[in-house]
Design goal:
Layout: H1 7-13, H2 31-44, E1 51-55, H3 58-68, E2 78-82, H4 83-94, H5 110-118
Parallel strand pairs: 1-2
Helix pairs in contact: 1-2, 2-3
């Protein structure tokens, strides 16, 4: 499945389990594909492990999920989401412990933030 990867990319995908890896590359160079194949490698080479993958964009998260959706039970062992959605989930679940209201709204657009500012 990794025949289309370069040698450095294959080295990242097949690095020993427990090895920290860092992928530095420009846009369009295949970072998402390499990390997706790394996740597949981890799932295929561990019996019970699960993987949490954090991305910066919804596009990357959706792309990774789509590429990993091969009909196997591996899909149940992965959680791929943006950093922001994971943070929101943590705040929704545990924010009350630091006094945050149950219903939080994260303003994503500048227009939303400006509206709150003008109405306060």
């Amino acid at each position: 499945m990794t025949d289309y990867l370069s040698l450095p990319q294959k080295n990242i995908v097949n690095a020993p389990m427990g090895t920290a890896i860092q992928v530095l590359a420009s846009a369009g160079s295949g970072k998402t594909r390499v990390l997706t194949e790394r996740i597949r490698y981890i799932l295929d080479n561990s019996e019970r492990g699960s993987v949490i993958a954090l991305t910066f964009t919804n596009k990357a998260a959706d792309e990774m999920l789509e590429r990993l959706d091969d009909g196997s039970e591996n899909r149940e062992r992965i959680w791929i989401a943006t950093i922001h959605s994971v943070a929101q989930r943590v705040l929704d679940s545990y924010g009350y412990t630091i006094g945050l209201p149950k219903e939080l709204h994260i303003f994503e657009r500048e227009q939303d933030r400006m509206e709150v500012f003008l109405h306060s």
